[in-house]
Amino acid sequence: MDEKTVEQSMQLILHSGTGRSMAIEAVRDLMKDNDVEAAKKKIEEAGKEIGEAHDIQTAMMSAECDGQPVEKSILLIHAQDHFMTALAVRDMAQLMVGMYDNLKNGK
Predict the structure, then answer these.
(1) Which residues are known to be catalytic?
(2) Residues 92, 39: contact at Cβ < 8 Å?
(3) What is the mean pLDDT of residues 52-67?
């Protein structure tokens, strides 16, 4: 696999993993501290990390659409798996924080 694809795959894993961890941390901290605003801020930060991962994925897809083939590998598949998991965890964390906020405010 070429060096650029390895670097992009590793960056995709890094940013996705950081975003996923931050989203989980937001829910964990909410359970401990009952601070909805802090949890929302942490999820927003998670979204920025996931956004970085999304930019990498988009660049790879754009390059391929422009006729620059991207070599498929287990590493790239692993990176995509991390990215999709991060998106799902972030979305679920947002729902959980919203639900907690509604329950806390009697909605």
Answers:
(1) 78
(2) no
(3) 97
